[in-house]
Specification:
5 domains, six-stranded mixed beta sheet, Elongation Factor Tu (Ef-tu), domain 3, alpha+beta, Rossmann fold, binds guanosine-5'-diphosphate
């Protein structure tokens, strides 16, 4: 690019030749950046050592000197490529020729990074032909046959069909993402709805889930004691049932969706009757809308004296939610999670909604399911709660879950009872996995242990490849950012949470706080309480420890953290955690230096100090001013304006109030001001005091509830 510009500018042929030569072969390091450095070198008061500018072995700087430097100065032009100074905003009067030329910072041209090609995702299905796969992936039939042969499968004709697992293995080998399409064949039968509870913080999501859980099958069977496995089922007297996802919150919902796990059929939007529509209510609405999931509104806390459900209805209506009472189709139910009133009505509304949606799924055949939560149990190993989308999951089957695999040792329902199989919309806890999967991972049934192992290995390899590629891209992004903002500090964070789903949601949310000045680096994540290992790691890399929904660490750990000066943040609400982390990030950010007008004064009088001896220097002009706005500091730079034009700018030589030297002078006060090397004051001129301030980034929380750091 630089070379083209060089030609366009009809640059000195010597430079062109040299630069061209340098851009090739052994001098390939002599790139745009090097030219920039050279330009900087000649524009500045040359450093003592040429090596300060560039490696000495690149080429002889002295030879180049004649080309660039002489040309630049002989032409008295600065618009030569790489030497162009940014346009000056103000006219600065130079009083004497002893002053050096105004030095403009060299702005390196932004490197053009290769555009990132978006990831390719192809749909695959059981029984697809080799030709199908070739068309979708864009690979030659012979290439596919080669990969299949390596996998120990011989496929002769392009019209031969292959299994969905083989198709995935081949696609992974080609570096292509896949989306598994499952056949709708088999009898489709009605299935229960899967419901997620969302809403603003403190509006009663957890209380509602607790109240509903107590009416759940598990609570009825286990005498009111339920274990938290990520989902529970409420059975109605009619025999119908509803599956509730147990993790309230939007981050978990969007993290699942981001992984392609669209398990939610209906969203219950909880709005407190005494508080009304709040930012996270709107956020929940937009989440549901973008996921195309219908909403049932639960106006909670109706038992409270300040409750005003009507107001909530009007607010929701004005936000575009077409409520049933207003002629729309969104049902509204008034409830109290604490007084446990209206819960039956809510359940009925959900059943009605599900009925309208005519939810059906294939019952027979291999299951397709999604993980909603995963944890490690000391005695039982990795456990994943999955909700079956279609088919039937059967104990003993070989499965691949995300990048992990295993053979189902046992399936437990939400009451903790061992069950032989799980049908659509039924949450089950899977035991027998080799590793811990993540919330949102898909569960697929495969024929054999070998196939499970191969798929898991392939997926792990692909994940690693993607991870490395992302790091590469991240580094490229970082380079770009570094061009504009030279300083970027790192904020290492360790995330510990109660379950895998929360770990993921918190990590994703924290990464949304990444900014040009602070790089949020989640160095370690884990399920469970904060351990000594976490403290050691945090100490080693100066990390914050974030604990989400975990119990308070024991005294020994707290003390160890305090001794090592490690910040430990414990929260149960993601938004609160982000708020605190946002504040810490803003504090840590280096900020950007900015020139601000701190005050303005009007010149009322001009005094001249004449007849001074030679030894005391030349005559001095003093501007007698009144500060009309802000304040003046002696350390500031003074800008003299006449009829709005800048006439002079320079440091303050003297600032006095009633003949006394002053450091700062406030608005409304008269003062005497001398600007270094300036004797051009006129009555009526305006003087501005400019101060350098460090502007820190801002933590922004938007109306929709999302957060970011703005630099
Ligand atoms: P979440 O942040 O949305 O999960 O809200 P919580 O379920 O933690 O509830 C926040 C607070 O509101 C708690 O102190 C609850 O006891 C209270 N709360 C929740 N539901 C009701 C209700 O129906 N009536 C009353 N009076 N208080 C409630």
């Amino acid at each position: 690019m630089a070379w083209r510009m060089l030609r366009r500018k009809d640059f000195h042929s010597g430079l062109l030749n040299l630069a061209f030569r340098a851009s090739r072969g052994g001098e390939k390091h002599f790139s745009d950046g090097a030219i920039g450095k050279l330009a900087q070198f000649y524009r500045s008061d040359r450093p003592k050592h040429a090596a300060d500018c560039m490696p000495s072995n690149h080429f002889n700087i002295r030879n180049f000197h004649a080309g660039v430097y002489m040309l630049a100065w002989s032409r008295k032009k600065e618009d030569i490529v790489g030497l162009k100074a940014p346009k000056k905003e103000k006219r600065v009067k130079r009083e004497n020729r002893t002053q050096p030329p105004v030095e403009a910072p060299y702005v390196a041209p932004k490197p053009k990074t290769a555009t990132k090609s978006p990831d390719k995702t192809v749909d695959i299905f059981d029984g697809m032909t080799l030709l199908d796969l070739s068309k979708r992936t864009g690979a030659y039939i012979s290439t596919l046959q080669g990969i299949l042969a390596d996998l120990g499968e011989k496929v002769e004709s392009e019209f031969d069909s292959i299994s969905i697992d083989l198709a995935e293995l081949v696609a992974m080998e080609l570096g292509v993402n896949t989306r598994r399409m499952h056949t709708g064949e088999g009898t489709n039968e009605p299935r229960p709805a899967v419901v997620t509870v969302m809403g603003h913080v403190d509006h009663g999501k957890t209380s509602l889930l607790d109240a509903l859980r107590q009416t759940s099958v598990a609570a009825k069977e286990a005498g009111g004691i339920t274990q938290h496995i990520g989902a529970f089922v409420v059975e109605m007297p009619s025999g119908a049932s509803i599956t509730f996802l147990d993790t309230p919150g939007h981050a978990a919902f969007s993290a699942m969706r981001a992984r392609g796990a669209a398990v939610t059929d209906i969203v219950v939007l909880v709005v407190a009757a005494d508080d009304g529509v709040m930012p996270q209510t709107l956020e929940a609405m937009s989440h549901a809308k973008s996921a195309n999931v219908p909403v049932v509104v639960a106006i909670n806390k109706c038992d409270k004296s300040g409750a005003d459900p009507e107001r909530v209805r009007i607010q929701l209506g004005s936000e575009g939610l077409l409520l049933e009472d207003m002629g729309g189709d969104v049902q509204v139910v008034e409830i109290s999670a604490v007084a446990k009133s209206g819960l039956d009505k809510l359940e009925e509304a959900l059943l009605l909604q599900a009925e309208m949606m005519d939810l059906k799924a294939r019952i027979d055949g291999p299951a397709q399911a999604f993980v909603v939560e995963a944890r490690v149990d000391r005695g039982r190993g990795p456990l994943a709660t999955a909700i079956v989308k279609s088919g039937t999951l059967v104990s003993g089957q070989h499965i691949v879950v995300g990048a992990e695999w295993g053979r189902i040792r046992s399936l437990r329902d939400t009451a903790g009872n061992i069950t032989e199989s799980a049908k659509p919309a039924m949450p089950v806890e899977i035991e027998g996995l080799r590793g811990l999967p993540m919330a949102g991972d898909d569960v697929v049934v495969v024929d054999s242990e070998e196939r499970a192992r191969m798929l898991s290995q392939g997926r792990k390899k692909k994940q690693e490849k993607d991870r490395l590629r992302k790091i590469d891209e991240g580094m490229a992004d970082e380079l770009e950012i570094n061009e504009e903002t030279p300083e970027r500090v790192e904020m290492p964070i360790i995330v510990k949470a109660d379950v895998q789903g929360s770990v993921q949601a918190v990590t994703d949310a924290l990464r949304s706080l990444n900014s040009a000045q602070v790089f949020v680096n989640v160095v370690h994540v884990g399920v469970g309480p904060i351990s000594q290992h976490d403290i050691d790691l945090a100490q080693a890399c100066g990390a914050y420890i974030v604990g989400f929904n975990i119990r308070t660490p024991p005294i020994a750990i707290t003390q160890a953290a305090a001794r090592a000066n490690i910040k430990v943040l414990l929260h149960k609400v993601i938004y609160h955690l982000l708020e605190e982390m946002g504040r810490a990030i803003v504090e840590k950010a280096p900020g950007t230096a900015e020139t601000q007008v701190s005050g303005e004064a009007e010149v009322l009088n001009i005094f001249e100090l004449k007849g001074r001896s030679k030894s005391k220097g030349p005559d001095i002009k003093i501007a007698g001013c009144r500060i009309t706005d802000g304040h003046f500091s002696k350390s500031g730079t003074m800008r003299l304006l006449r009829s709005g034009d800048v006439v002079f700018e320079g440091p303050c030589a003297s600032l006095k109030r009633e003949k006394q030297d002053a450091e700062t002078i406030e608005k409304g006060t008269d003062c005497g001001l001398v600007i270094q090397d300036c004797d051009d004051f006129q009555v009526g001129d305006v003087i501005q005091c400019l101060e350098q301030v460090i502007r820190k980034p801002k933590f922004i929380s938007t109306q929709s509830g999302s957060v970011r750091i703005e630099c």
